[in-house]
Amino acid sequence: MTLADAFPEITKRREPLAPYTHLKIGGPAEFLVQPRTADELRGVMRFCKTNNVPLRMLGGGFNLLVRDDPVPGAVVRLGVPGFGTVEVAGKTVKAAGGANLFDLIARAVQAGLGGLETLVGIRGSVGGSVRCNVGDRSGEIGSAVRRVAVLHEDATEHVRTRDELTFGDHKSDLDEPVILWVEFELTPENPATLMKRMRRAWVTRKGAEPLTFQSGVRMFRDPPGQTAAKLIDRAGLSGYRAGGAEVSPRNGNYVVAHPGTTAKDILKLMDVVRANVKDACGVTLDRELNVW
Ligand SMILES: Cc1cc2nc3c(=O)[nH]c(=O)nc-3n(C[C@H](O)[C@H](O)[C@H](O)COP(=O)(O)OP(=O)(O)OC[C@H]3O[C@@H](n4cnc5c(N)ncnc54)[C@H](O)[C@@H]3O)c2cc1C
What is the pLDDT of residues 128-186, one digit of tens each? Predict the structure, then answer.
């Protein structure tokens, strides 16, 4: 029995993943599963564990490159509204793993709660964003996290508290298969002040990204005390192309996928960038982009 037989209403076989990712490239998932409830999600996880089916979580696909070949096993997406809730209670905001990061930030600012507003403009789901500890010099999401509910491979739930969590530069130790919900502890502030800060952050962030009509993703983490973008520029790689993939002239740490780009082009470009930065600057860049 396959996943498609066990969960026919929520499973698509050989579903192309490109439309579900920001880069819009890559091969199909053997099974794309979109559970409607947490119980259904647990059932899918138990099926995968019992039958040795690999399981991957797909968020908004903003930090993801899907290779050109089919992705074996289950790709699970928390796409229904039940996995997108955001609730405010006092100084805490609880967001489901599939919630949109923008909705979380907007609800917090509306409620006069500060701590997330400078992340405005970063796109993704709450689960993917906390796992990747999104942010920049203005702050990172991990510093506002109070508790995270995760599901282990066997679908058992565990709530990890602040002292059990480690956040690093664009990474965390949240390596359980599923982030079910995240609770944030924020600071009461005047909503008008938060709005002002949010607008400033939006303008700064958009000015340092590829143009809005382009599909571009970040490639590498910033090494301590340096930025990957500056190192890539210093290595003379701004505008460098491999097939349809190009190092963004607006920010060297973004690869832009022009029409017709393949995952292979992007991987080749990243290899060249890493090798040239090592030669020119003596720094080995660490990949931030998740590759399936
Ligand atoms: C134009 C652009 C600008 C960006 N700017 C920034 C920036 O300024 N700062 C920054 O930090 N990042 C930035 N990013 C990166 C990106 O926005 C974040 O990493 C994003 O929040 C990832 O969330 P996602 O839902 O898209 O995750 P995905 O890309 O779908 O997945 C990323 C990882 O998270 C895992 N995952 C997703 N959902 C879950 C879940 N519910 N449970 C467990 N694991 C899960 C996936 O399996 C994968 O390993 C930018 C990206 C783009 C395209």
Answer: 999 999 998 779 999 999 999 999 999 999 999 999 999 998 999 999 999 999 999 99
Q: Ligand 1: list residues with CB < 6 Å.
A: 22, 56-64, 78, 97, 101, 122-125, 127-129, 131-132, 134-136, 170, 178-179, 205, 209, 216-218, 290
How many angstroms is it from 14 CA to the middle of ligand 1? Answer: 23
Report which protein residue has its CA nearest ligand 1's atom 5.
122
Which phi and psi (to 5°) does residue 150 adopt? -120, 160
Q: How many residues are there in the chain?
A: 292
Nearest CA to ligand 1 atom 43: 178
Chain centroid to CA 44: 22
Ligand 1 centroid, distance to 5 Cα (angstroms): 31
Task: Please tell me the distance from the alpha carbon of residue 163 to that of residue 189, in angstroms, as a whole number.
Answer: 25
- By most ligand atoms within 8 Å of CB, the mutation choice from 34, 62, 138 for ligand 1 is 62
**Ligand 1 centroid to 13 CA: how many Å?**
24
- Residue 246, pLDDT above cutoff 90: yes
Query: Going from the N-terminus, what domains does the chain have, and what CATH number goes with each?
Result: 3-77 (3.30.43.10), 83-195+199-205 (3.30.465.10), 210-291 (3.90.78.10)
Taking the mean position of all CA atoms in its chain, how far away is CA 199?
22
Residue 171 C-beta-side C-alpha neighbours within 13 Å: 13
Digit-coded pLDDT (tens) for 16-38: 999 999 999 999 999 999 999 99
Can you say how many angstroms the Cα of residue 41 is from the centroid of all Cα atoms in its chain? Answer: 20
